[in-house]
Specification:
Layout (H helix, E strand, L loop, with lengths): L1 E4 L1 H9 L5 H13 L4 E6 L10 H4 L2 H10 L3 E7 L8 H4 L9 E6 L4 H12 L4 E6 L24 E6 L6 H14 L4 E5 L6 H11 L3 E4 L13 H10 L6 H18 L5 H8 L4 H9 L5 H12 L18 E5 L4 H4 L1 H10 L5 E3 L15 E4 L4 H8 L8 E4 L18 E3 L13 H11 L4 E5 L11 H21 L3 E3 L9 E2 L7
Parallel strand pairs: 1-2, 1-8, 2-3, 3-4, 4-5, 5-6, 6-7, 7-8, 9-10, 9-14, 10-11, 11-12, 12-13, 14-15, 15-16
Helix pairs in contact: 2-10, 7-8, 11-12, 11-13, 17-18
Amino acid sequence: MKILDCTLSDGGYYTNWDFDSKIVDVYIQAMNVLPIDYIELGYRSIPTKEYMGKFGYSPVSVLRHIKTTCIKKIAVMLNEKNTRPEDLDTLLVPIQGLVDMIRIAVDPNNFDRAVILAQSIKTLGFEVGFNTMYMSKWDDYEGFLSKLNKINKVADLFCMVDSFGGVSPEELKAIFQTVKQNTTCPVGFHGHNNLQLGLVNTLTAIECGIDYVDATILGMGRGAGNLNMELLLTYLNKGGLEVDFNVLGDVITAFQSLHDKYQWGTNLPYMLSGANSISQKEVMDWVANRTYSFNSIVRALDNKRNKVKDNAHYSVLRADKVEKVLIIGGGNSVLEHQEAIKEYIHNNPDMPLLFVTARHAALYNEVVNKKYYCLVGNEAKRLSQNISGTDFKGECLLSPYPRTMGTEVPVYAEKCTQELSQISFTNTYMDSCTAVALQTAIELQADKIYLIGYDGYQGQVLSEKEMDLTNENRTLFLSFTNVTGKILTSLTPSLYKELNVESIYQYL
């Protein structure tokens, strides 16, 4: 049995295939010592519009450098969906002699096309591996398993990829037997860890007689990650495999800072996606999004599993024209100037209040003004925490149906909830609470749109979440002004240059 480490190729989904050269040097040195047969460095790719770092393209200079320091066999990956035989002169001819195996990421739908690609790769002198995805759903691809004999005398490896991380050991045994009946090449297993089955499935595959197994340092990999290489080696050491644990400890330490930063590993959304064979790509984006709660992610997964667009539908907002609205954000200025804000609201009883967040909503329970609460992501939960059912005197507003994350509304607000028919002023951040509030101002035909609590963030160095929120708000403010021609005015201090800033005190 051979062991393949794919830390840089799979871990790249978190780093955009950028890895510090010092980490890579420690990694290569460790791989040289550890009982690992192949290392998969990354991808060879045709140019894309999205940024990918060096191991997304694996330039010749990088491969040549690693070849001089690495004594193990080297693999790189091709993504079949955007690679054709005519691309191989550009992608593979320059790396002949630098790379031993080319592994192809294959969607079962494109298996016939992948065989043709593999035949072309084989003529260039490389070993060829098929990383065939979506193992738990192979029975759903009509005729796929019966086609496996097409890779005989072409493939040097057929790797079964548990893309969703939900295959059980018993399912693995059955699938392995079917694969062995239809192929003559070595067979491998690549497990994901959504349901923490990476180790038990890999050990089951080994018991079945698997030829290759994949793992990564600290389990680094897309979404919930992969089987931890250190866990696999520690287990195999019990059976006599020699492992230098000092070296293993060194490479774990080198990658620890990346784990601290990206926090890959399983959680409830990944568990549910694994159990229901739902793509990890979307879940990975959702988990990283600052506005999406676990509840909203789980709800979105339930909708996918049940094959529904959304779990709830409400009547479309119908409202009378107003002169002005006040949009209330979550900044501390709402607290600092609360007495002035309350006086201003009291002086304008016909002015609706649009709460972008329920963070400060309890301050205004007693005011008579019409109140709208924009619900996206965590806001339904926050509203329930800040305002009880007996105190609730307003309406909830939702983005247009269907909503990406499904719909969550406090039980006490079910009968007082409406949704927008459209977001007309922007094509970005359409599931943002700020977008919902600004669109509501359009629906209310307000001539004057005032904001409070959009303070912006102080300091030269912002966190990633602060930068994301700043960019989101700036984009929405600019789009709103450009499309509607209306000025957005903050009545509390704001660092957003897209807003006109006035003092609330001049209106008292």
